[in-house]
Every structure is written in C-alpha cells, then in structure tokens.
Amino acid sequence: MLLDRSFRRTLIARLLLSVGPSTAAALLVAAPGCGEPEAETADIRCFAWDEALGACLDRAQALEELESIYTSCDDRIVSVESDGELRDGGCCYEVIAEDKSDICPMEGRPFTLEGRRVTAAPREVEAGWLARATASGAGGQQPSVADLTDEERATLAGGWLRSALEEHASVASFARFALDLMALGAPSSLVEGAHIAALDEVGHARLGFSLAAAYRGGPVGPAAFPVPPAVPIAPDLAALARAAAEEGCVGETVAALLAAEKRARAEDPAVRAALAAIAEDEARHAELAWLTVAWAIGAGGEPVRRAVVEVFEAAAASLGRRPPPEAEPGGGRAAALAAHGHLARADLRALEGAALAQVVLPCARALGLWKPAAGAARAAASA
Ligand SMILES: [Fe+2]
Ligand SMILES: [Fe+2]
User: Fold this and answer.
1) Per DSSP, which regions of 162-291 are E strands?
2) C-beta contacts of 76-83 below 8 A and 24+ residues apart
C-alpha cells in the first residue's frame, strides 16, 4: 500500500530537516540487529457508571460492556483481570489486550502508566469538551448524518469516541512530557513545543468528541482522567528518549500519516476539516519527537542512542510478524464510513505498516538509528 506521495515526502523532509544536517551527522553510527516481539500488555479500560446503580458490573458483564464500547481497531480485549473500581462516574478494570502493534495503530501520543495505556471513561453528558467554532471553521462544522443508517452512525460514533478519548489522553501525556523535559534540563524550545502540543491535543479531543456527539445524536465527553496522585516522570535521558521515540517518532509520525490518509478518503466537509487540522498538528508533534531524540542523544551519548535504536528495531520487527489481511466487508458500507473518516481495521493496519516502512524507518535509517537486517528489509519492502 502506498501512502499519499506528497504528504509522505513532505513529512520525511520536515522530520530530517528539523533535526538538521549537523545533528544528523552526529547520529550517524551503526545500529545493531533486530529486537524481540513485545508480549501482551495490560490496560485500564473504563465505562460510564452511575454510582446510584450500585457496585460495578462483574468481570464477565464488564467484558461484554467494554466490547460494546471499544468497537474500533483496538477492541480485542482478551480478558478482564480485575474487579471494577468506581472512579469519578466510571467503572475501571484492568484488562489484557492483544499486542496492539499487530492490531491497532496508535492514534496520537498515549499516556502510559507502568506500561499500560490509560484513557478516561466516556460520559454521555456535555462535559465541556465539545469544539467551539474557530476562524478556520475546523471546530464549528457538523457532519451530515442524513444519509447514514443507524448502524453506520453507531460505528462512526464509537470510532470517533475512541479517537477522542485517545486525544484526551494525549493532553496528559504532553503535560507529563513537559515535566520530563524540565527535570532533565531540556532547552526551552522543546519545553515550549510540548506545551503547544498539549494545547493542540485539547483541540483534537474537542473535534473528536464533537464528531462522536453528532453521529450518536447526543452529547458525550470524558470522565476525569484516571491518574494516581503521584505520576512518575522519566528518570533519565534514556527513558525520555525511548518514550519520545516510541510515542512520537513512531506513534505520532504514524498518526500524522493516518490522519492525512483518512482526510484524503473522507468526503464530509466537517470530517475533512477536522482531519486536515489533526494531520498538520501531528506532523509537528512528530517533528518535536525527532528533535527531542536528537537532543537527548547529544546530551546523553551512547546509552541513550542504544535505547532509541531498540525502539526502531522493535518497529521493524513488528512489520515481519503482521498477520495476513482479514476479509472485511467492503462495498457501500465501507465507502460510507470512509467518507466520514472511519477506515476498516485491515486498512489501518496496512497504512500503519506503510507508514513505518515508507517514512519512520527510512528517517531512522538516514539518521543512523536503524539498519535493516535481511528479514526486516524484506518485510519493509513488502509493506
Ligand atoms: Fe492528536
Ligand atoms: Fe499528537
């Protein structure tokens, strides 16, 4: 699968130029062989719950409920591992999900705690997270739902809600990233970039909740973000650079390309405007990540570089263990959903693979942070 050539080329140029030729030369060192696949990971998943109804659902009921909410590409929950915990209008559970690198492209920068991706529970109320009209019009338009079936509207509402909750989590992720940078002596340009990016993510979340509300026909927003009183920050430059490489150089570069591809296939003006804004912002967030990695390697040397190399090796290894494309319903329904920014899981996986092979890994290779092993090169070439 080929990504839009113009956006892809522009993004590669932006990422490499943002690091700068002198920094690129400093990073030009050989990378070792490929890493091991990641294991299953645990996540926290929540759904809205009125405490007046009593205790949270049991694990079996919770699994059913979660599967009905998380209907998009990352819904393959294997099991619910804990009893429900009431958290500010929601019930939250620890769940085991299949390895997302094979299932679901990251749409933006995740907030992780002890290796688990955390998002807020959705709330079916006006929670102050709906978009306001802007001068560009990106926040004030409503999608046209008149020609959609109830099933299509439900799918679109679920997909945009999941996306909005991930964007909402990205706000917290950049807030923590700004503290990481401060604690490790980063230059002001990076700290400034992190704060600007957090504000961008507020806008993305508003757009997502607004679209989800329009498709479902009623307000929706996030419950309080479920973080503990003490949030750990990166202990050293290697940890900071590893997270920036995973979440930004890989995650946000992929997110920018996915948003651009969705926009190219979308027909609804409100959806196209939202995706255009998101694609542009995510491209800047990707630039910030590559700049952060370059600064951290310059400041911390070989141990930091090695941590970053491992991230790209893992990304390359993930290309080699992708399952064959699933047979999914195409035709009119797929076209109707794509017109409103929703792509099938198999399409998303193929696009993620193309983004890794055509943008992320070539950039990493140009900067001396990844060198293809024979198997990885074959996988990248076929993605
Ligand atoms: Fe975003
Ligand atoms: Fe982002």
Assistant:
1) 221-222
2) 76/103, 77/45, 78/40, 81/42, 83/56, 83/58, 83/59
Residue with the bigger pLDDT between 2 and 58: it is 58
Instruction: Please write the tens of the pLDDT for every residue from 250-309.
Output: 999 999 999 999 999 999 999 999 999 999 999 999 999 999 999 999 999 999 999 999
The rounded Å distance from CA 203 to ligand 2 centre is 10
Helix (H) or strand (E) holding 236, with range, is: none
Percent of the chain with pLDDT over 70: 80
Domain range list for the chain: 5-39+99-382
Average pLDDT over residues 28-55: 54
CA of residue 292 to ligand 2 center, whole Å:
14
Could you give the C-alpha distances from 336 to 270, 300, 331, in angstroms and in order? 15, 50, 9
Q: Which ligand is nearest to the CA of 287?
A: 2
pLDDT at residue number 183: 97
CA 109/CA 3 separation, integer angstroms = 21
Distance 208 CA to ligand 1 centre (A): 10
SS3 assignment, position 256: helix
Measured between alpha carbons, how far is 164 from 222 in angstroms, rounded to an integer? 9
pLDDT at 47 over 90: no
**Tokens in use for 233?**
């920050």
Burial of 278 (0-12, 13-18, 19+ CB in 10 A): buried
Residues 6+ apart with CB under 8 A from 196: 284
What was the pLDDT predicted at 26?
Answer: 41
The alpha carbon of 84 and the centre of ligand 2 are apart by a number of angstroms equal to 30
Residues 6+ apart with CB under 8 A from 167: 107, 108, 201, 204, 205, 207, 208
Q: What is the pLDDT of residue 381?
A: 52
Ligand closest to 203 (CA) is 1
